[in-house]
Write a structure and sequence with these properties.
CATH topology of the largest domain: Ubiquitin Conjugating Enzyme
CATH architecture of the largest domain: Roll
CATH superfamily of the largest domain: Ubiquitin Conjugating Enzyme
Helix content: 25-40%
Number of strands: 7
InterPro entries: Ub_conjugating_enzyme (IPR050113), UBC (IPR000608), UBQ-conjugating_enzyme/RWD (IPR016135)
Radius of gyration: 28 Å
CATH class of the largest domain: Alpha Beta
Protein name: UBC core domain-containing protein
Oligomer: single chain
Pfam families: UQ_con
Organism: Triparma laevis f. longispina
Strand content: 5-15%
Order of helices and strands: HHHEEEHHEEEEHH
Length: 247
């Protein structure tokens, strides 16, 4: 038979260990001693009154709040950053170990991938699965933009005549609300059409799109979005007419 007494009947000489003892340094290092004292005092009152269920409820509530914080000896309590960030670059190893002639289409794509991995652009990472000709680009926007800490995915597919023709490039859903981005994912960008040059790269497109969205003052949609929203994304933009402010 256990010799332990119920929590609420323990004598003052053997008072229960309070769950906040472990975070005492966090609460006191920045002048939060009074907070800790109040919390422990409240629990002691509940203990003395035998209100075990209420004490348990209060303990759970406060622990839920504390779960959003971490302790740093030099900074005290800091709120956890729970924003989702894109994972690191994920590349199927064969794309880096199997060599393709640099003069071929696959060789060009492989060279671009290695260059991207060697010096990745800020806030951008890439995932490449079994097909070297299809990339998923993750764009995570800084807090100062119209898309604070939001991450969107670009699907890039390299055509058979790449780099003579530009890649197919569009946003996967959910798509960012921007005056040059249709809800189906298509992007009104001249680099995907008449302004494409073989000297450009998938990284060029990703950085340009990142810059375009980062400079947006507000979230909006193209004026003709409703007419284009049902179209299959990623088609060639040979006949698109580009303007400074609209497509």
């Amino acid at each position: 038979m256990s010799s332990h007494k119920p929590l609420h009947s323990q004598s003052p000489a053997h008072s229960p260990v309070h769950p906040f003892d472990s975070i005492a340094p966090a609460l006191t290092c920045r002048g939060g001693g009074s907070i800790l004292k109040s919390l422990k005092g409240s629990l002691k009152i509940l203990d003395s009154l035998g209100l075990r269920s209420l004490r348990k409820s209060l303990t759970k509530s406060i622990n839920n709040v504390l779960s959003f914080f971490s302790f740093n000896p030099n900074e005290g309590l800091k709120e956890h950053n729970n924003k989702k960030t894109p994972s690191k670059n994920k590349i199927k190893s064969v794309h880096l170990t199997k060599s393709h002639p640099t003069t071929t289409r696959l060789g060009r794509i492989q060279s671009e991938l290695k260059a991207f991995l060697k010096s990745p652009p800020p806030h951008i990472c890439v995932t490449v699965g079994s097909n070297l000709s299809q990339w998923i680009i993750h764009l995570t926007f800084p807090p100062t933009t119209a898309y604070p800490n939001e991450t969107y995915k670009l699907k890039i597919t390299f055509p058979s005549d790449y780099p003579t023709s530009p890649p197919s490039c569009y946003f996967l859903k959910p798509t960012p609300a921007h005056e040059h981005v249709y809800t189906n994912g298509d992007i009104c960008l001249s680099l995907l059409g008449s302004d494409w040059r073989p000297t450009m790269s998938a990284e060029t497109l990703a950085v340009s799109i990142m810059s375009m969205l980062s400079s947006a003052g507000e979230k909006s949609r193209p004026m003709d979005n409703s007419a284009h929203a049902a179209a299959k994304p990623g088609g060639r933009q040979d006949n698109w007419v580009y303007h400074d402010d609209s497509c």
